[in-house]
Amino acid sequence: MRHLIDPTDLSSSELQEIIDLALDIIADPAQYADACRGKKLATLFYEPSTRTRLSFTSAMMELGGNVIGFSNAANSSVSKGETVADTTKVISCFADIIAMRHPIEGAPLISALNASIPVINAGDGSHAHPTQTLTDLLTIRRELGRCDNLTIGFCGDLRFGRTVHSLIKALSRFENVKVVLIAPDELKLPAYMKEEVCDRYGVPYEEVASMEEAMPLLDIFYMTRVQKERFLDQEDYDRVKDCFILTADKLKNAKPEMRILHPLPRVNEIAIDVDADPRAAYFRQVENGKFVRMALILKLLEWSKIPSMERRLLPDGTIPNAYHCSNPKCISNHEPVETLFRPDRANPGKYRCVYCESKPRS
Ligand code: CP
């Protein structure tokens, strides 16, 4: 069985295969119109979504398949207390592939561990959003003709921004990618991302105080929303919500070929006057999301039939029930699951939670 829970579940060549297939679908969509005839995708969305859920729906329909599922867990038996594991076992009886979004980190991994069909993580809390990453990579490839030799600036909420974490992980597999980080102190990139991804895979990064300072260096400017739903305290959110706002005026020192990406939705971090700039690629990015999800569905269904394509879900050195996770939004603190910790790749002798990558509770 093959799942996509984290961008690192895909090898560099598999990532490339998905992007190439998406480009082929764009060139000749009619060729794929019956590719999933008789198949069902279950979209299990425990958290709101417009782009991800509807692009998955649209992708499966354009492949000739059908879609079942829920967009509000309150209308399902989740409201009666059904766990992610049990829900997954049930849905495995009805569908051929699952796309799950959940506000609790690690929920899609629990689903994959209990599924008899492929599971796709459609976003889990602040942790990961690998299909947004595929969307971003396809967009960068179509807009710039390459995904290597890039300087990419990430701006806004780099702490809770799952799209940022996943894209940096995926870009660490490409040659000569440099990262510029623009965030207030409260929303800086988590230490595990700097140590276990940037340092370990040789992705140079620098933290700068303003977007104007970064702008002339960048091939991609990746803007993100400060996510109100991730804050426990309204005052903390109010203090940082308008920390960085991109306006047309701030683009005057940007390269003519630079592209502006944003996973969307935006609130007010990109002014409307930027939309008319040809470098604003965020609505083209949305459409790429449908094509790349078509490619992903096809590849996961294909790879799941080939025993040699099977991959283990748990990292080497995973130990069960040795620690408790320090993250209140980790699935291990919400449902009766085994705690699982893997070695910390930057700090020998230390461990991190397999579900959400947080440290153990002290
Ligand atoms: N980019 C993204 O995940 O958007 P939605 O929350 O609308 O799915």
Quick structural overview:
Helices cover 31% and strands 15% of the residues.
Main beta sheet strand tally, sense and closure: 5 strands, parallel
Structure ligands? phosphoric acid mono(formamide)ester
* Count of helical regions: 10
Kindly report the spatial arrangement of strands forming the biggest sheet: 7-6-5-8-9
Report the span from N to C terminus.
36 Å
Order of helices and strands: HEHEHEHEHEHEHEHEHEHEEE
What structural category do the secondary elements indicate? alpha/beta
Low-confidence stretches: none
**How many extended strands?**
12
General shape? globular
Q: Could you explain the architecture of this structure?
A:
The model has no long low-confidence stretch (mean pLDDT 96). Helices cover 31% and strands 15% of the residues. It is an alpha/beta fold and 362 residues long. The strands form three sheets. A five-stranded parallel β-sheet has the order 7-6-5-8-9. A four-stranded parallel β-sheet has the order 2-1-3-4, sandwiched between helices.
List descriptors.
single chain; 362 residues; alpha/beta; 4-stranded parallel sheet; 12 strands
Describe the SSE topology.
Blueprint (H helix, E strand, L loop, with lengths): L11 H16 L12 E6 L5 H12 L3 E5 L13 H8 L5 E6 L4 H8 L4 E6 L5 H15 L5 E6 L6 H10 L5 E6 L8 H11 L3 E4 L2 H4 L5 E4 L10 H7 L18 E3 L20 H22 L15 E2 L19 E4 L7 E3 L9
Parallel strand pairs: 1-2, 1-3, 3-4, 5-6, 5-8, 6-7, 8-9
Antiparallel strand pairs: 10-11, 11-12
The structure holds phosphoric acid mono(formamide)ester.
The site of phosphoric acid mono(formamide)ester (CP) has 9 residues, from helix 2.
